[in-house]
Each structure stands twice: as structure tokens, then as C-alpha cells.
Amino acid sequence: MKRVQPVTLTGHLVQLEPLRPEHHDALVGAAQDGELWRLWYTTVPEPSGMAAEIERRLQLQELGQMVAFTIRRLKDGQVTGMTSYMNIDQSLPRVEIGSTWLAASTHGSGLNAEAKLLLLTHAFEELGCPAVELRTHWLNTQSRAAIERLGAKLDGVLRSHTRAKDGTLRDTCVYSITQSEWPAVRSGLNYRLCKHTKEAHTGAS
């Protein structure tokens, strides 16, 4: 059994690299692209709170509860967001992919899909996870649709599960992908990414 620990994962479009404090300024720039923290149902950090968010993730990493990544676009080296393995159960192992956000201008570019492909591939094929979990707010229809496009199945809804940043109670949708479902999910992701990876190789915009 392999332990879940920091690792660099590289694809055609993005590189996921272990989060470090020196990523702060670049992450602030990414967060300012679209000001996604203004959406009440998201957990994108405000620029003024980025240092605290980096520290929070790294503290959870020290406790073995999270492995935090910075997302870097390969074509220009630009930092575009963050993601993580979280709620880690080292005994299986089992992970949740979450606390993910990307700059608004990158949405629809394939970066998020490839980041998920890299994380899922590592979880299933290197770590041997029997299942990978994904969670989101019931009202975050964009996130729910993206998770469902992956091929994840809805396990259930945790009613009044946590409190959102505006003080309201959040219903959390819990999705998962199992080891037996992974080959079909992988094929679907690779198919979706074909156009974007071809553009990356040819230098098309």
C-alpha cells in the first residue's frame, strides 16, 4: 500500500506541483481573474486571504489529511489555480478531490479536465484507491454538472452539512468514482481532452 504524499503530476496542458508559500503572488493573480470569491457558494480565497489559505492547506498536509497542489498551465508557465487530495484515509487509501478553483479565463480550456485526469490516474493507478470522492454545494450547478460529466455517480446529499461563508447552511452533494468505473471515466476524459491536447501540440490558440 502506497501512502498519499506530495508529488508532481504532469500532463499535456497542466502541471500539478506541490503547493509552496512562494506560489502566493501568482495565486493571488489567478484568483483576481474573474473574482470568483464573490460567488457566495464557492470557497475561492480572496487575495487578502491567500496566505492564510496556503498555510491552512499546508498545515492539513502536515497532519496527513491533505495533499495540496498548485495548478500551472504548461504553455506559458502561468499559475492558474489550486486543487488537492483531501479527507485522506491512508488505511485504504481513499481520497476526495476537492478545494479546486481555477482562474475564470481558463474555464472551458481543458485545464480542469486534465487536472482531474492526472489526480484520478494517480489515485487509481499509483495509489490503488478503491474509490475517489468529489463533493460540491447542492446549489453549485456548474460544479455538479462538471463532476457528472466526469462520470461520477451521486452517492447522496448531506443535508445542512456545513455552514457557507455567508452563514447559510450548505447541502453537500457527495459523488464518487470506483476502481471498476475508472477505465470508462478515463476514456471519457481522454476523449474530451483530444481537441485541447492537439491544440497544445500544434501551438494553436
Automatic annotation (TrEMBL):
PANTHER family: BLL6696 PROTEIN, N-ACETYLTRANSFERASE DOMAIN-CONTAINING PROTEIN. This is GCN5 family N-acetyltransferase. Gene3D superfamilies: 3.40.630.30. It comes from the Bacteria. InterPro entries: Acyl_CoA_acyltransferase, GNAT_dom. It holds the Pfam family Acetyltransf_3. Residues 2-180 form the N-acetyltransferase domain.
